[in-house]
Amino acid sequence: MLQKLLDLVYPRLCLACTQRVPAKGSSICISCQGQINPTNYHLLDDNPVLERFWGRIQLQHATTYCTFTKEGLIQQLIHALKYRHQPQIGIELGKLYGHELKNAPLYQNIDYIIPVPLHPKKQHKRGYNQAAKFAEGLAETMGIKWSDDFFVRQENTTTQTKKSRMDRFENVKSAFRVVAPEKLINKHLLLVDDVITTGATLEACASNLIEVEGVKVSLAAIALAS
Ligand SMILES: [Zn+2]
């Protein structure tokens, strides 16, 4: 009764097109969901996401929910997630993709979902970490815990311009730190981010995490940029 009343006064609107959506279910409407081009990479052992990390870092599996097309709906949604204070978009996309991952044979033994930490200053300015919002949605539908307590970003990161490629990598890597590594021993972690571009940040994060004894890392992001 109260819910019906609330729906009348505050109708739920699609996060993408602002049309009304039913009181229950996703807050991205069916029509907008139809505009998302899913990759289905979570069903493939070898795929373009994993290929992007070949020869760089040992990953178990890697996937993105969709492809990133310029001017497409996903680009709009990610832009709003990052710059228009719409954290709910990250959660909704996570919930939608979590439904798929929950049943994917390659993603059955994940222990924790870990978002790529945002620089503290950026997070303070934005009010949230968009990768953590995606993690939160994934966790909800996959029924797996997510946490941003195990892996953090530190304040430093000195200027990179005059460094060699290797020094740059070490520098990016040192921007992150595993907290309480004893809690991660032998765990399979799903490291998540919003968009994968060069993969440099994810590589740096994963290389920190796999230094913990027995840790395996898989990746999931909302979109893969070409
Ligand atoms: Zn819509």
Strand content: 15-25%
Largest sheet: 5 strands, parallel
Number of strands: 7
> Which whole number gives the mean pLDDT?
92
- Categorize the overall geometry: globular
Number of helices: 9
Structural class: alpha/beta
CATH topology of the largest domain, by name, is Rossmann fold
Second-tier CATH architecture of the largest domain: 3-Layer(aba) Sandwich
The CATH class name of the largest domain reads Alpha Beta
Radius of gyration: 18 Å
Number of domains: 2
Bound molecules: zinc ion
List the strand order in the largest sheet: 1-7-6-2-3
Span between N and C termini?
48 Å
Helix and strand sequence: HHHEHHEHHEEHEEHE
Uncertain stretches: none
Q: Into which percent range does the helicity of residues fall? A: 25-40%
Model description:
The chain is α/β, with parallel strands linked by helices and 226 residues long. It folds into two domains: 1-35, no CATH class; 37-224, Rossmann fold. It contains nine helices and seven strands. It has helices at residues 2-9, 30-33, 48-52, 73-83, 87-102, 120-126, 130-142, 165-173, 200-209, and strands at 62-67, 112-115, 145-146, 151-153, 176-178, 188-196, 216-224. The strands form two sheets. It has a five-stranded parallel beta sheet with strand order 1-7-6-2-3, sandwiched between helices. β6 (188-196), α9 and β7 form a beta-alpha-beta unit. α4 (73-83) crosses α5 (87-102), α5 runs parallel beside α7 and α8 (165-173) crosses α9. It is globular, with a radius of gyration of 18 Å. It starts with a helix and ends with a strand.
